[in-house]
Structure formats: structure tokens, C-alpha cells
Amino acid sequence: MSPRKKNHELSWWEQKDKWFDRLRNKYRLIILNETTFEEKLSFRLSRLNVFVVTGTLVILLIFLTTYIIAFTPLREYIPGYQSITAQKEIYDIQLKADSIEKELRAKEIFLSNIQKIIGGGIPRDTANQKPSDSSIIKYKKTKANASEDELTLRNEYDKETQYNLTPTKGKNNTESSIRSVNFFTPVKGTVTTKFSLTEKHFGIDITTSKEEPVKAAMDGTVVFADFTVKTGYVIGIQHRLNFMTIYKQNSLLLKSPGQYIRAGEPIAVVGNSGETKNGPHLHFELWHNGVPVNPIEYIDF
Question: Which domain holds residue 270?
């Protein structure tokens, strides 16, 4: 090895040792009182120590920032960061909005049915429902393959149920639920016109003395109380268990919509208002689950 190259290598190692020695050189940082030059604080430092402490602080700061972003609620204040709580609140609001929309639709149908009942019509989604074409075709095919005894039985069943407004499956449940309720007699008198689905007479007419008070059949809330051209002064009460009673052709109404009524409480006065003029009488209707039922079967007049 040439002397020149050897000298060059030695100088490189010497420079490296000098640079490392500079890192390890000790320095003293002294804080003095400017006026008295009194020593307040002093620190013994080296460049290596400063680098180590500074690097450690940077690493701790990065770790602390990462922890705050990942595991604390403070991350929600960072612009552009999605909040899990906000997403859950939005989801809950959407569910509530859907529920409110369904309730509004149900209320609209309920009010529409009340108007139809008051006017003497049939509420929606009950008696106006018709079987689909596919169900009729299926029924005809099974009927064509039936025996004579089965055909006779089916014909008898069809005659008995052709005017039913509710399916046979729920009929027993409806009757049992109605019979389990105690009704108060609205007025005492003579039933002159009976309940008839074929003639669309969804209640009964009760002839009684003039100015006889009409009493509520059950506890409930007045949902309609007004005059109609066809049926005169009408009052409708919504009761528990999806019952509703309608009192038509009164001469005077004693209650207004929104009032809560007790069973047996006077709500109107018997009259002869409306288009039908048959003397003082009450037209009384009893509805359950949006379907008219015969009041004579459940109330003693």
C-alpha cells in the first residue's frame, strides 16, 4: 500500500473519530439572572443527548397523536373524519322518519274510513277487497276436480259466506273479542230497521221518545261530531280494542271532537235530522277492526 493512500485512510478514520467525539463532548447550559448574574439553573448536555431526547419526544408525540385520532372522541373534530356516532344518529333518524310516515299513512286511512262510515259507505281495504284472478282460477280448478259431496258442501259454504266482510279465519276471534266487552245501551226503544249488509245498512234504527238522551256505548274519544246532509247530526267515538260506534240522525250534539267520554255518558239527543224522516229515532252502528257488526247480537235494546 502506498504511503499516500495510507495517509488518506488514516485521515478519514481520524475525521470520523473527531465527529463522534464532538457528539459526545459535554456542554453546560447555564441560566443566569441578568442583573445579578446569579446562576439559577444549569444543565450538562451533549449533542448526542439532545438528539436522543428530541427523537424520543418526536416519537412520543407521533404515538400520542395516533392514539387520539384512533381511540378518543376528539377524532370527530378533525376535518374530514367520519363520526360513527353521527352515522348512528342519522340511521336512527331515518328509522323514526319511516315510522312517522307509516303512522301518517295509517292515520290518513283511518280518517278516510271514518268519513266513509259517516257517509254510509264502506271503508277501504275491508269489504271492497276482491280476490285476485289467479286465486279465482285456482279455486275453479280445484272445484272442478271435487266430488259431488264436496261440491254440495262448498256450495252451502259459499251461500253462507258470500256476504261476509271478513275472512272466516278471523271470524271466531272477532266474535269472541266482541262478546268479551260489556256495552252500554245507547237508548232503549224498538228496533225498526235491522242490520243488513246486502242493503248497505250497517247499523240499526231504534225508535224511542223525543228528546231522549243518547248515551255512549263504551269509554272512548270523540273523533267526529258534525252535521251531514244525508244523516243529520252525527257523532263518532273511537274506543279501545279497535271498536268504533256511530250515532246518526240526532237533533243535538252534546260533545265535540277530542273529548274523552265515559260509558253511559250522554253525548247527543234523539232526533229526526237528515234525509230520512221516520220520526224520532237513533241510527246506531258498531264497527270492529274497520268492519261493521250487528249491534243486536251484542247489545240489549
Answer: 177-297
Give the chain as a 3 state SS string: CCHHHHHHHHHHHHHHHHHHHHHHCEEEEEEECCCCCCEEEEEEEEHHHHHHHHHHHHHHHHHHHHHHHHHCHHHHHCCCCCCHHHHHHHHHHHHHHHHHHHHHHHHHHHHHHHHHHHCCCCCCCCCCCCCCHHHHHHHHHHHHCCCHHHHHHHHHHHHHHCCCCCCHHHHHHHHHHHHCCCCCCCCCCEEEECCECCCCECCEEEECCCCCEEECCCCEEEEEEEEECCCEEEEEEEEHHHEEEEEEEEEEECCCCCCEECCCCEEEEEECCCCCCCCCEEEEEEEECCEEECHHHCCCC
The CATH code of the domain that includes 242 is: 2.70.70.10
Tens of pLDDT along 1-58? 555 555 555 565 566 666 666 777 787 878 888 888 788 888 777 878 888 888 999 9
Residue 151 lies in a domain: no
Residue 144 within a domain = no
Q: What is the pLDDT of residues 186-215, one digit of tens each?
A: 999 999 999 998 888 999 999 998 889 999
Q: Is the pTM of this model over 0.90?
A: no
